[in-house]
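ligand=tryptophanyl-5'AMP
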Amino acid sequence: MLNDKKVLFSGMQATGNLTLGNYLGALKNWITLSDEYECFYSVVDMHSITVRQDPATLRKRARALLTLYIAAGLDPKKNCIYYQSHVSGHAELAWILNCFTYMGELSRMTQFKDKSAKHADNINAGLFTYPVLMAADILLYQADVVPVGVDQMQHLELTRDIAMRFNNIYGDVFTIPEPYIGKIGAKIMSLQEPTKKMSKSDENPNASIYLMDSPDVILKKCKRAVTDSIGEIKYNEDQPGVKNLIDIYSSCTGKSVKEIEKEFENEGYGVFKEAVGEAVVSVLEPLQKEAARLEKDKAYLDGIIKENAEKATYFSNKTLRKVKRKIGYPDMIR
Ligand code: TYM
């Protein structure tokens, strides 16, 4: 690849309102890793249509997400920030990989089981083969590393299995990607049910902090976060609510768990929750302001979108040409 740097691929769905979990579990690590790797960060709008979407809303959310990537600190001149749907190679490779993936493997995916229970009236084939499109995303760019939250690990393992299966038949076509899971923040939990993942589709608005929540709302949600009756700020499995708040505070401030336990040794939950709320605001407020500023610069964003779609297409075509030859598609006559 360019500059002999290793390649990084990751993406987020433009569905629902992004949560603090998306930021701390993924986006924050993307920024840390972006200098070290040649990075592709996709707005995975093709994945989004596995659940019914209002077209105008999807288009708006996709643009807002792309803007957010940049607002969060990813330089779009150095990182390829683009819409998945602008690069036809994703769909082409997904079809091919579908033919190398077993029904049994896809049936075991917990996200499929969860989503098909939630959308029982629309269990479409796309929802089932969703992880194959994800494998195509990653393998198309020969990614070495894929930073994700813990909930995507199963999909990543499947991606590796598909890649190894393909390589066993056709030789070394795909790089086998490694997951990158951050040390803290890899699984941010619901503020209301701290044994459950914080999710953008949670029906209880107090369960999730959304990236676009105002400071007031963030402080209120933190204040209402479910804890326990133990009354100690200690990081352990018996206090999942407190543990989650420590994770959030640690991730937002860079302080270690030990430092945090010490800082709040003689404090009650009220003081701690306020500090957590303020730490979250100090991370999200600048992000929101920058996103609002960028949004207004239509020409700049349009330029980035065009340029990066071309760059992604160029690199994806390299892999795709190789794959097509290997599997025996006839050569194009030019
Ligand atoms: P998505 O859009 O659900 O989530 C985007 C990223 O946010 C992480 N995440 C979390 N991390 C910590 N705590 C949480 N509560 C939390 N909730 C979400 C996710 O792990 C993810 O990293 N299928 C993917 C998108 C995708 C993708 C890919 C990712 C499509 N193709 C290729 C990596 C590589 C998804 O739906 O993520």
